[in-house]
Amino acid sequence: MSYQNTDNATILSQQANRESNARTYPRHLPFAIREAEGIRVTDMDGNAYYDCLAGAGTLALGHNHPRVIEAMERTLDTNQPIHTLDISTPAKERFVDSLFKSLPDRFSEQAKIQFCSPAGTDAVEAALKLIKTATGNRSVLGFQGAYHGMTNGALSLMGDTDAKEPIPGLMNDVHHLPYPYDYRCPFGIGGEKGYQTASQYVEGLLSDPESGVPNPAGMILEPIQGEAGAIPAPDEWLREIRRITRERDIPLILDEIQTGLGRTGELYAFERAGITPDVLTLSKAIGGGLPLAVVIYDESLDVWEPGAHAGTFRGNQLAMAAGEATIEYILEHDLADHAAAVGVRLRDRLESTAEQFDAIGDVRGRGLMLGVEFVDQDADWQGSGPHAPNGDLAESVQAECFDRGLIIELGGRESATARFLPPLIVSASEVDEIATIFDEAVASIFEGRKQTQGVSA
């Protein structure tokens, strides 16, 4: 059957009949995509949308960017191999050249790279194996609110317990530490004192022989927690964590799978704090929209024997060509700086919306990785923070945005945070249109609720 001239309803029905019940995005974004270009997608019914999901941040240059398409077509037209395992090619070497060029010299000059199976979670699995091999230790330090993927080892690092409870045999050698979430400070303090307490807690735990935490193989963290709701770690806290881990010879893994390559207003989010990781996991944007994942690590950790970590699809040449084109375009056009500038513009507009509605508790993030958290002022919240997260309200806003032509994702506690991850090529005028749609959607939801409450009364 040809589906090119069918409608949304037909394809969604087929998908529901044949795909796993684990499918996620179609439940909140009920459409099928016919075509896409730049920051816009068009569905099977001819409706156009601004895409602020962009493959969960994968599409740094948006859909079907000419530079990326040209690189892939050139690869295909010149009879280059598409799949090479870990055998090298000119395309692979060019990709590594570009990737290392994008990294700070202090890191890349003594770095090794490991190509993994193609998903970000595969990079996390490889990084865990690497540090355990290098240190001989087993336990890992993770953080509350973390998201590092959905495979067994990566899932064990997750802060969301709902996703882990049904899974038997999940690794239990991960120790979750408090992450400095200013709006919902784990210590109920917030601000500078909150993140200082968070770092002091970590240092105290690692210094206490009665803590119950064995010598760790390493620590893994996101400089900005993405799925937790765009929560940025303070620079000072990151510097303290780097000091603490370095003084104790604990390898520090930074997961920049979502933040890497310009999204946060820096090429890499860790650069803002001026730190250097021992291990860096990358995926999403580095493949130009195609599956590709790598681990980059300090050469002192390069203790693997040949074949210690393999994977059939680590030789995706088309992704390397697309990735090289993406990296070079980002560097040539200073898209990290552009993301910082238009990100401030978008955040200012989102904060303006928040000023009008008390049920918006927090606006946060950096660059083009922003979150707007909705709250219920009348509900008790057993965790930290002034008000309970309101996932129902956030879902209503997401649906209203979708009806008005804007695709956003939800995340955070109770899925109460509207998340914005537009392509880095988004223009100032497009940011204004996105912000206007969001503002009007929020106003519409609140107006509808007022009318409903009036009728009920």
TrEMBL record:
Name by which UniProt lists this protein: Glutamate-1-semialdehyde 2,1-aminomutase
Gene3D superfamilies according to UniProt: Aspartate Aminotransferase, domain 1, Type I PLP-dependent aspartate aminotransferase-like (Major domain)
Single Gene Ontology MF annotation: glutamate-1-semialdehyde 2,1-aminomutase activity
Domain of life assignment: Archaea
InterPro entries: Aminotrans_3 (IPR005814), Aminotrans_3_PPA_site (IPR049704), Dat (IPR004637), PyrdxlP-dep_Trfase (IPR015424), PyrdxlP-dep_Trfase_major (IPR015421), PyrdxlP-dep_Trfase_small (IPR015422)
Enzyme superclass (EC): isomerase
Region described as Disordered: 1-20
Family matches, as PANTHER family: DIAMINOBUTYRATE--2-OXOGLUTARATE AMINOTRANSFERASE
Organism listed in the record: Halalkalicoccus paucihalophilus
UniProt keyword annotations, A-Z: Aminotransferase, Isomerase, Pyridoxal phosphate, Transferase
EC number(s) from the headed UniProt entry: 5.4.3.8
Family in the record: Belongs to the class-III pyridoxal-phosphate-dependent aminotransferase family.
The protein's required cofactors: pyridoxal 5'-phosphate
Xref: Pfam families: Aminotran_3
